[in-house]
Specification:
This protein is mainly alpha-helical and 204 residues long. 48% of the residues lie in helices and 8% in strands. It folds into 2 domains: 92 residues; 61 residues, no CATH class. It contains 6 helices and 3 strands; from the N terminus they run ααααααβββ. The chain starts with 12 loop residues before the first helix and ends in a 14-residue tail after the last strand.
């Protein structure tokens, strides 16, 4: 009785390509933590924050406070990004050190619960862009799903769905006609698959 050796499994080209790319990225040092960069960034943001606070005190009652408020928004956003990187263990090699930095920046500086955000962000990474499971695309001010966009309304007004040539759905929310100075048209955009764009109902 003649036996033949089993043919070796053919390597998966996609898996092999990813393995080669991953090895090249690691060998190039692209995944190495850049702690020095983050410490420099934090120092610069800290100085900017101190300067803004000093400006608020110096200006007193002035319309220029609005400019400082805009600058403060930029600084706070950058600090929140650093907290995000710390949560992903990208700032320090130590996990506890990253957590401590993230807690200080989020809770004490930016004003957002670090523990709440990490749970929410973990759910996002476990189910990215999956309806009903990813909290980052849940129904809110901005619509990411056609069914959410179809329910969108303006400030005391009505909404209208419009399909674009690119397959996106644009919602124009017209506010009620009132004397309120902030009653301006608001547009929300929901990105949908091009094939599903035709299935979205129009609302007037």
């Amino acid at each position: 009785m003649t036996t033949t050796a089993a043919a070796p499994d053919r390597p998966n080209r996609v898996t092999s390509s990813f393995t080669e790319l991953s090895r090249a990225v690691r060998e190039s040092g692209l995944l190495a933590r850049t702690t020095g960069f983050y410490l420099t960034l934090l120092a610069a943001l800290g100085l900017a924050l101190v300067a803004i606070v000093a400006g608020v005190v110096a200006l007193g009652s002035s319309w220029w406070q609005l400019a400082l408020a805009a600058a403060l928004g930029v600084v706070m956003t950058q600090l929140a990004f650093v907290a995000h990187e710390a949560a992903h263990r990208q700032v320090f090699t130590s996990g506890p050190a990253n957590d401590r930095l993230g807690r200080v920046l989020a809770n004490a500086v930016v004003g957002i619960s670090y523990s709440w955000w990490t749970v929410k962000h973990s759910r996002h990474h476990a189910n990215p862009n999956k309806a009903g499971a990813d909290p980052d695309i849940a129904e809110g001010v901005v619509s990411f799903l056609p069914e959410h966009a179809a329910r969108a309304r303006g400030i005391g007004g009505k909404g209208e769905l419009q399909r674009t040539r690119t397959g996106n759905v644009r919602i124009r929310a017209e506010p009620a006609r009132t004397a309120q100075p902030l009653a301006v048209p608001i547009e929300f955009v929901a990105i949908v698959d091009e094939g599903r764009a035709e299935d979205v109902p129009r609302r007037g």
